[in-house]
# Entry
Amino acid sequence: MLARVASRSLAASARLRLPLARTIVTKKYTKEHELIAYDSDTRTGTMSISDYAQKSLGQVAFVELPSVGADVAQEENIGTVESTKAASDIYAPISGKVVAINEELSSNPGLINKDPEGAGWLVKIEAGSSVEKELDALLTEEEYTAHCESEDAH
Amino acid sequence: MAMLSHARCLRASSPIIRRRISTAADPSTRQIFVSKSTSPHFNLSIEDWLLKTAPRDQPALFLYRNAPSVIIGRNQNPWKEVNLAAMQALGFQLVRRRSGGGTVFHDLGNTNFSIHLPRASFDRARTGRVIEHAVRNIMGVYDARTNARNDLCVGDMKVSGSAYKIAGTRAYHHGTMLIATRLDSLGDALRNDKIKMLTKGVASVRSPVCNLRQWKPDASHEQFVQAAVESFRQEFDVEREPAFIDEGDFQDVQQVRQSIDELQTWECVYGQTPEFTHSLAQDFSWGAVTVDIHSKHGVILDASSDACPDLASKLVGRRYGTLDGLDVAALSTQEREVYDWLLRAM
# Structure
């Protein structure tokens, strides 16, 4: 019994150690409900809207994204997510160059509702030189959760 | 500053520079604005200015009327939603707004309201109640009710349609109020039968509508403005007097001037159109022609036609609808016939 537990935890830590040794992904949030999963190894961040935002918007009908190659600045309005309830502006969480957009969303915008932080990602941004400072200014997961709770309390 | 290959007319990234502003147009001392202008470009620009500059913790109200115009939603296809030929013949303007939702017709018989709140406390049921209270309890249209879509109806007919916009820390609920609109013009401008046009983006939901005058013969713009102001002040405990504004008050506000210009550009009205395909077919005396067009951001990406392959290749890269810059003189007689038909049929 003990041996089984030990081997399982060993396997788990091996699984964990491998990606951690390769790269560090930092997940940060904006107060406007975007999030960025930043990979320090590739210096690229994947931007999404949060699950909280997806829930409050309701069924997404259309997503307007910037073009690949566009230079974006942190906090710049780079598109909209339109749901049956509202058109909501989205803002770049970090500065840099758009290197990919999620083409799937053009025919299947509902992916944002199904899997906002996974298959429903919006754009990938190759970070500029001030990315560390920009990420510092964003919210951690705990801070963001507290921010959402304070909005709900209104 | 971003370099975007397509229209960025509806995005605001430019710094807001405020110089001398007339006191009527100062969002830090006023919360209620009533426009004296009937320019849709001015009024939509004021709405956006209010969204971006009003104090983040205060509610704000804006009321305005537009000269005859068709206002499409941010992510809509004007060629699918609107009868452009009928609209142009009637002298109506086509404008793309920043909020989501469907196409609406505006004229001086329709008054628009726009209620701005902090995003965190935004509640569409509450803003809907402000308008319902104005029409029902203050104007005395006792049968007026808000439906499940948060639109105001009398019986099963809509007198008001709503759309919503969220930007940063603020959000607004805006909508139309049909008081004495020319409903026949509305029908002509919004009738469209392009069943072979398949478009991404947002489609309008057609609803039966009626005017408040049908229920209250003396209903007027002034009456609704007064009722909406009173209802807003009650609900949000606002004591400040309304500011009556027009273009003169905003001559020095660069954000407003820039927005007025941008809303009138091709990039904004047509260049913001989501991707679509259109299959057009016509019989000519010399044979049948089919042209298949694929367009995004108002520009033709691909075109094919078995009967006229050369003409089809000349369509690529041109603006859908007008085909600007195509060398008409170089076309054969048959191609010229097809070209003339395409301009009418697109």
Q: What stands out?
A: The longest strand of chain B covers residues 287-296. Chain B has two domains: 6-269, 276-345.
